[in-house]
Specification:
five-stranded antiparallel sheet; 49% helix
């Protein structure tokens, strides 16, 4: 079964958005899909000799790298999640795992530059190990431009190509090209791959009743019907998010198998077409044909060599 290199990225705008994402990375807030008993196994990598292990430190490093003048809607950081198919982790050796994270950081460094790589953490407390990294999309001339680094679909596809090439030596392949499957949220992608889908969701009567938002001595503020609808909608969406992610992942795997099957059939047809002129020949006859073909190949190579030598001699200024 094919095992894939997986790389996702997410643009982060606003200091609050970056800080919230980092808090998840450093487990400074509740992380339902992480096992707290395994969180001590997470490793914060030292980049340039500096190890950042908290949101405060990471935000400080981010501010140092951000230009003073920037657009209000500028992308301040890009969050990367880099991993592989769950099956690969089951058989990968310690050396292969370490090489995977080293190569992943190397790919980010080559793309963004070492100064733009803020922090990187190896997460071992979720279902599938992965690297979470944050980079500042600052260009060589000092601008913030996620567009220049990530760009359009063509550039993102090229990134998938080069990343897969970077870790190909570890037995990993690139995912399906031009897949229409949507990218999932980084925090939930891996939990969804290995978790079982939700059988059903049962809402209690109390769930749909307006809840008290604030209460004073003489006043009480409760949810409006619109707020109740928003809260219940979020409960349903969160409950079935894993089911949606599992379906998306299964579709991705099925399309990859279909693509591999199609490629194999096309190669088989080309091979059969090449073999067509030789059908009915005995082994000795086939051997003679191959011998003649080899002789003709050598003869052609000798002829081309003579032609090159003749052109060299006829070149003006050539000394004999």
């Amino acid at each position: 079964m094919a095992q894939f290199a997986i790389m996702r990225c997410k643009k982060l705008k606003g200091m609050g958005g970056v800080a919230s994402s980092l808090a998840h990375c450093f487990r400074e807030r509740e992380t339902p899909n992480a096992d707290p008993d395994r969180t001590p196994n997470n490793e914060h990598l030292a980049l340039g000799g500096v190890k950042i292990d908290s949101t405060d430190k990471a935000m400080g490093a981010l501010r140092e790298r951000l230009p003073e003048r920037r657009r209000k809607d500028a992308v301040l950081a890009v969050e990367y999640m880099m991993s592989a198919s769950p099956e690969w982790w089951e058989t990968a050796s310690k050396e292969q795992r370490e090489a995977f994270f080293t190569e992943s950081v190397g790919w980010l460094t080559d793309k963004y530059g070492a100064n733009n790589l803020i922090t990187a953490t190896v997460h071992m407390d979720e279902k599938t190990p992965h690297l979470s990294a944050y980079v500042v999309p600052r260009t060589a001339d000092g601008r913030l431009s996620a567009k220049e680094y990530i760009g359009n679909k063509s550039k993102m596809s090229a990134d998938q190509d080069t990343y897969a090439e970077r870790v190909a030596g570890l037995g990993l392949e690139r995912g399906i090209r031009h897949s229409k499957a949507t990218h999932t949220r980084l925090q939930t992608y891996y939990g969804a791959i290995t978790q079982k889908p939700l059988a059903h969701l049962a809402l209690r009567p109390q769930t749909v009743e307006p809840q008290t938002l604030s209460k004073g001595i003489f006043t009480k503020q409760v949810e409006t019907p619109h707020q109740v609808a928003e809260r219940v909608t979020k409960i349903v969406q969160d409950a079935y998010s894993n089911t949606v992610e599992i379906a998306s992942t299964a579709l991705h795997e099925r399309r990859k198998r279909e693509e591999l099957t199609k490629t194999a059939l096309e190669q088989q047809k080309r091979l059969e077409k090449l073999q067509e002129p030789f059908k009915g020949l005995s082994k000795d006859q086939l051997a003679n044909v191959l011998k003649m073909a080899k002789g003709m190949q050598l003869e052609n190579e000798a002829t081309r060599a003579q032609q090159r030598q003749s052109r060299t001699r006829s070149t003006p200024g050539h000394s004999r």
